[in-house]
Amino acid sequence: KRRDKNRWTLFEESMDLQYSERQRMKLDLREAIRTGAMELCYQPMFSPDGARIAGAEALSRWTHPELGPISPAVYIPLAEEMGIIGDLTRCVIDKAAQECASWPGELFVSVNLSAFDLADRAIISVVADALDRSGLAPERLQLEITESGLMNDLETARVILTELRAMGMSIAIDDFGTGYSSLSYLDMLPLNKVKIDRSFVRNLCADARKLKLLRGVVHLARELGLDIVVEGVETEAQLRLIRENECADLIQGFIFGSPIPGSAFGELATKLTKQDLIASAETSRLS
Ligand code: C2E
Ligand code: MG
Ligand code: MG
Ligand code: MG
């Protein structure tokens, strides 16, 4: 069952690769990042009624020449360990800003930062350069952060994020509600958005306590003036509950779309934005 849900089950389940395999993969990863062989997919974020597309999350993809697609759950920690995560982050931000600038309307793009990125002020010029080169308005770039184990210098992270936010970007805390994103960050970091982890959505329909938890988290986030993205929505029943309980400003999940390559996302966005414009023209004509 798990197999068809995830193309890269093989590596997800054997995270402790053989030493030689690991060494080999490290060399290949370094090469892939250096030569720009890493690709980007985009997963849409929709208004809860599914009528409007607001933006997309950029997710990196690595297809190994012999091993096939490797999960980010494998190569992100490898890149962190090798000290080359910053190079990957730069590639992702560059490409995402470039592609987002070609999308219609005011769509935003959201990129994942590693905790390592937030330990070094270099990230500020990486972002500034990407915005410069692409001409993308900073308001259309969002940065997602998680703890991922090593955000031990919270003060440095806070200072860097404050600066990025002052430049116009928005900051989202990712995987919220898991061990990787602690409650105290809500108070310490300059956030705009909370992305509620998909563990809150799983079993939402079968377990009444899940809904209470979700509603509680949503209430907390709203009290703090944060926007809410609910991740991992897969079924109509989950979506209905989330809508009835007004638990989301945006939805990201398989129900509205999986991650797709940039070209396909561009087409989707263009099509939906046109429909959106037509719909709003019709509404204003009727009123
Ligand atoms: P994330 O940032 O929380 O990204 C969302 C992940 O959930 C993606 O997995 C996405 O495909 C998956 N997902 C989205 N909707 C659904 C759904 O309805 N059901 C289920 N079961 N899953 C859903 P992916 O692409 O495998 O990425 C995994 C993680 O790897 C990401 O989690 C992110 O933390 C990390 N990652 C991916 N690309 C990058 C990157 O370029 N840089 C960094 N630093 N991290 C990245
Ligand atoms: Mg993310
Ligand atoms: Mg997430
Ligand atoms: Mg996640």
TrEMBL record:
It comes from the Bacteria. Residues 22-273 form the EAL domain. This is Diguanylate cyclase. It comes from Hoeflea olei. The chain holds residues 483 to 769 of 775 of the full protein.
